[in-house]
Design a protein that fits this description.
The complex is a heterodimer of chains A (141) and B (302).
Chain A: E1 4-7, E2 10-14, H1 21-37, E3 44-48, H2 57-72, E4 76-80, H3 84-92, E5 101-103, H4 106-115, H5 123-127
Helix pairs in contact in A: 1-2
Chain B: H1 4-7, H2 12-21, H3 26-34, H4 36-56, H5 58-63, H6 69-84, H7 91-106, H8 111-132, H9 135-179, E1 183-186, E2 189-196, H10 200-217, E3 221-229, H11 234-250, E4 253-257, H12 261-269, E5 278-279, H13 283-293
Parallel strand pairs in B: 2-3, 3-4, 4-5
Antiparallel strand pairs in B: 1-2
Helix pairs in contact in B: 3-9, 4-6, 4-8, 7-9, 8-9, 10-11
Classes of the chains: A alpha/beta (141), B alpha/beta (302).
Chain lengths: 141, 302
């Protein structure tokens, strides 16, 4: 069970269990389905890995892949809360994850995602209230 | 404070093993007990000869120059000599030997004096026993005495080595602490001035400590000043790059400062790719950049 929340116009995934082979697909599905189901009401994805004491190269790969998948669906991803010893080990193994953006905590992660968009505008202003029907851009014109 | 036997992990099993290794058996001990009287009788002569020897050597004589020192030590030596004939090579005996070894180490008596002293003891004791006992009995008794003395000397050396190791460990810990002074220069800005030689061990140590600090302080920027680093070669540059990568994984940024013209030249000539790093020449410039990254700036008062 991967808890997925919507916070300040972003999807927040808090990884609470070690991402073993069996959980990985569920995890990715959950994130991608959350993006799909929100119908453009969120801007980015925050993956919080504070609880992960071990991140091996496989899990690192999974995080990078998930970010890449989310990007294909039009969402930027930020990985937050990596522990010092996890970062140390990954770098020692030559895994620097250059394609993944990172932040110290959820606040910083959200701030970064917000900064990607026009300063001074809030999500609500850009997309409108959550329950309002979303006006689809007319692509034919 | 724990006893020496405890600190050295000396228990009955270890003691038995040690005695077996030194080939000390009941027969040896009972032989010593049998001749304890003679031992006592010969002790003053042996101890005196021993101290005359020490006083004849300028190096050791200097140690014994304090008034009353020789008399006091002679009493102790006599006591020690008697205890060797007691036949009680138990944990209490080991404790005493270790303690004496540690004391000698502390007051700066080099091990060579220790070994030399034992050797001298044996020569004097040998002569004394051979003068008083039957040939076969004298050989067996001095052999037993020799084993016990070597057993004792080994314990003293154990104490010496352990004391040195303790000192070395303490110093290493102190150096380690000194080598990673992470300073909080502003809210969410840390400064790590690197000084001296950066080898692989140290680089890893520094990196670990720095990462922990960044995480603890939730720092956005780590200023890494390498002005004090003696040599910047490919290896050092590689460590710096790794550190930058790891700091980024936490979600913070590194600003590398203190890059002298020579270091800049070296890094480019070595083909180090610093494209991913913020770098500055002076620490003050780096600080400005760091503050900029956290949305602050230094300005004039008025």
């Amino acid at each position: 069970m991967i808890p997925i929340l919507r916070v300040a116009g972003h999807i927040l995934v808090s990884v609470q269990t070690e991402l073993g082979d069996d959980v990985v697909e569920t995890f990715q599905d959950a994130v991608l389905m959350a993006i799909h189901n929100d119908r453009g009401r969120t801007d980015g994805v925050v993956i919080d890995i504070t609880a992960l004491e071990v991140v091996d190269t496989y899990v690192a790969r999974v995080l990078a892949d998930t970010a890449a998948m989310a990007k294909l669906m039009g969402r930027q991803t930020v990985v937050v809360g990596m522990r010092p010893d996890v970062a140390f080990t990954l770098v020692q193994m030559g895994f620097t994850l250059p394609e993944v953006h990172t932040a110290l905590n959820i606040d910083d992660g959200i701030a970064w995602l917000d900064a990607l968009h026009t300063p001074g505008t809030t999500r609500a202003q850009r997309v409108g209230p959550l329950d309002a029907p979303r006006s689809e851009p007319d692509t034919n014109r | 404070m724990a006893s020496y036997t405890e600190r050295f992990g000396f228990d009955d099993t270890k003691l038995r093993e040690r005695l077996r290794y030194f080939d000390i058996h009941e027969t040896d001990l009972s032989l010593l007990i049998t001749h304890a009287e003679l031992g006592r009788e010969l002790t003053p002569g042996i101890v005196e000869a021993f101290y005359n020897h020490l006083l004849a050597c300028p190096e050791t004589a200097e140690y014994l120059s304090a008034p009353g020192m020789v008399e006091r030590l002679q009493r102790k030596q006599s006591h020690y000599f008697h205890s060797m004939f007691s036949g009680d090579l138990d944990l209490a005996y080991v404790e005493e030997r270790l303690r004496v070894g540690a004391v000698h180490e502390r007051i700066g008596v080099p091990p060579r004096w220790y070994i030399g002293a034992y050797s001298r003891y044996l020569v004097v004791a040998h002569a004394a026993f051979h003068g008083r006992l039957e040939q076969a009995e004298a050989v067996a008794t001095t052999a037993a005495l020799e084993k016990v003395m070597h057993f004792d000397a080994a314990l003293a050396m154990d104490a010496y080595i352990a004391a040195h190791l303790e000192t070395a460990t303490r110093q290493r810990a102190a150096i380690r602490e000194l080598s990673t002074p992470v300073i909080r220069v502003h809210d969410r800005v840390l400064l790590l001035p690197l000084i001296g030689t950066v080898d692989s061990n140290r680089a890893q140590e520094v990196m670990q400590q720095a990462l922990i600090k960044v995480s603890e302080e939730q720092a956005r920027v780590l200023l890494l000043d390498i002005a004090g680093v003696a040599v910047v070669d490919t290896q050092v540059a590689d460590h710096l790059l790794k550190m930058t990568s790891a700091v980024r994984l936490l979600g913070a940024q590194t600003v590398l400062t203190g890059i002298s013209p020579m270091v800049a030249r070296t890094m480019v000539e070595l083909g180090v790719d610093v494209g991913t790093m913020h770098t500055r020449n002076a620490l003050s410039d780096g600080l400005e950049l760091a503050l900029d990254l956290v949305g602050m700036k230094i300005g004039p008062i008025a």
